[in-house]
Amino acid sequence: MTSPSNKLYINGNWIPAADTFPIIDPATGDIVGDAADADADLALQAVEAAHAAFPAWSKTTAPRRSKLLYRWYELIMEHRDEIATLLTCEMGKPFPEAKGEVSFAANFVLWYAEEAKRIYGDTVPSNEPNKRITVLRQPVGVVAAITPWNFPAAMVTRKVAPALAAGCTVILKPAEQTPLTAIRLVELAAEAGFPPGVINLVTTSSPAEVGTVLTTDPRVRKVTFTGSTEVGKLLYRQAADTIKRISLELGGHAPFIVFEDADLDLAVQGVIASKYRNAGQTCICTNRVYVHESIAETFADKLGEAVSLLRVGHGMKEGVHIGPLIDEQALAKVERHVQDALQKGATLLTGGSREGDRGYFFQATVLNNATEEMQIATEETFGPVAPLFTFQTEDEVLARANNTPYGLAAYFFTRDIGRVTRMQEGLDYGIIGANDPAPSAAIQAPFGGFKESGLAREGGKYGLDAFLETKYISLAF
């Protein structure tokens, strides 16, 4: 097999594109690698390869698919540190966090290696004595997986592994900012022994051109995408003409509610775990912190002091908690949100500024006295900034938390079991962290949102559903 450097993986071969594009380390601005720059024609070649490979792969036995997935899992774990280094260099998150993501990514492969053997149908009792009813689950077909830059490893495996387990073939298009991690994962998949055409990789600096091919070609029967709500809506419209299956994991605007009976120290650590992981660049990270007015001053002091200790820097340096934002545009948005909040009356408790002369760093920031008129109250910041709002009653804060077009994740801290029940049932969100700031850590749970935060679910046994068709057979005799 030839080297994957600056090449695409199509039909079991690493093939060159006419051009390449550079990958930038957001911590330094240095070029850390290059990737092949695919166009529409190369994307079509990937579709053709996946379509041609589907009949044989869909008929491959579940134990065989399981064995290949398990070997892929082993290879990822064997190369965990290497992949994590790539991830940190192209995306910026601290190396320990990157290692955690690679392990998380590998465990999706392991989970679906096991689930591949448990795709069951049903025999349903008939109301006719001379009929038998059977229900089969069969793979949907060719899958286009479009993944984001903020989790370059985990979002690949969370989509590709269940698709392969179900018997689908895949075209992977990673984000243009972070293709190196995906390239290495696909190289290891090839080493694991997946047949030609079963996994195809298309990197590009022109996501709209390649994405249009993947969403409009009738041979692609399923699109799975993680990214912004704006782009998700565009893909949804493009996929409609061929009535493709589509899974969308989109933006969020997560509330984090701290009730007066909460353990404040745990709640402070919960906000830090939810808000500042990956420099605030996660779709489920806290965007609005609502604190009961009776504890607001104490909580603000505790959070401000704890956040002031977080160290910002290059992800490969020891002791760093927060890496850079992905690019200048992301940095400018965070800066804009902070300045808007300060101009409208917020109080800066810590942070609030760019950090350093190189890279896209922003200090870990806490804003007190936030109000609904601020941009940060309605727009997803995607950066290390926690705005603190106050509330008086449970009904009030529930209404305010739900007053958004998004519905991905929500968090609350309380010791009242009755309130736990009311809040988890009342919050219009697909993922609830009840005294838990890290609910996404579970590979076995369904991940996805309500409203404009997306469609379908990823993870656990639920993650297979989007890649399977249900076929009903009525046999008369």
UniProtKB/TrEMBL annotation:
TM helices/strands, residue ranges: none
Superkingdom in the source lineage: Bacteria
InterPro entries associated with the record: Ald_DH/histidinol_DH, Ald_DH_C, Ald_DH_CS_CYS, Ald_DH_N, Aldehyde_DH_dom, Aldehyde_DH_Superfamily, Succ_semiAld_DH
UniProt similarity note: Belongs to the aldehyde dehydrogenase family.
One annotated GO molecular function: succinate-semialdehyde dehydrogenase (NAD+) activity
Source organism per UniProt: Tumebacillus avium
Protein name: Succinate-semialdehyde dehydrogenase (NADP(+))
Keyword Oxidoreductase: yes
Keywords, sorted A to Z: Oxidoreductase
Any one biological process term the GO annotation gives: gamma-aminobutyric acid catabolic process
Domain Aldehyde dehydrogenase: from-to ranges: 14-473
Lineage: Bacteria, Bacillati, Bacillota, Bacilli, Bacillales
Gene name for this UniProt entry: gabD
